[in-house]
Design goal:
There is one protein chain. 32% of the residues lie in helices and 27% in strands. The protein has 165 residues and is an alpha+beta fold. Strands 1, 2, 3, 4, 5, 6 and 7 form a 7-stranded antiparallel sheet that branches. Strand 6 and strand 7 form a beta hairpin. The longest helix has 16 residues. The chain is globular and about 45 Å long.
Length: 165
């Protein structure tokens, strides 16, 4: 009980002190115009399932890792649906606050001129994490079912994706 109280208190303090300014629109979410351009006009888009690797016993949650499975090229029709959702303001819960620790399950990568914008999806929390060339840059709650629907099309045999609502 005590760790939960500390976690909740820390979350409230973080939210009330303004230590981190959350994005309030798509431009802020993707941080730079170049990142948006990579998503809008990629040379290639691919996706994979992520395998969760828990921290060692007694370790911190900051030690958790993910292993990428084989990437597959995303078909044009699926890319189009994903781009539309990613770039639409109403996709996101800008004012939502969730007290959860996301466990990302799939990764979508947009490639352009050797640069990569990757998006990791947690379908338990409906949270996505945006990375630029491997480094996290932003994240947000999402509301659009196109993300889970698209990943199910790409990975129809994945047991975890079958279980998600």
């Amino acid at each position: 009980m005590k760790p939960l109280v500390i976690l909740l208190l820390g979350a409230v303090l973080c939210l009330t002190t303004g230590a981190h300014k959350a994005p309030s629109n798509v431009a802020e979410l993707f941080v730079t115009a170049e990142n948006l351009h990579i998503v809008r006009q990629p040379d290639k888009v691919d996706a994979c399932v992520l395998r969760y690797i828990a921290p060692p016993k007694g370790g911190s949650m900051q030690e958790e890792r993910y292993e990428e499975t084989d990437f597959l090229v995303v078909p044009t029709d699926v890319v189009s649906a994903l781009q539309t959702a990613l770039l639409k303001e109403t996709t996101y819960g800008w004012d939502s606050v969730k007290l959860c620790w996301p466990r990302y399950h799939t990764r979508l990568r947009f490639h352009r001129s050797g640069k990569i914008v990757a998006i990791d999806f947690c379908f338990s929390c409906d949270i996505l994490l945006i990375k630029r060339d491997g480094e996290p840059i932003s994240g947000e709650d999402f509301r659009d079912p196109v993300f889970i629907e698209s990943m199910r099309k790409l990975f129809p045999e994945d047991p975890a994706l079958k279980k998600v609502r």
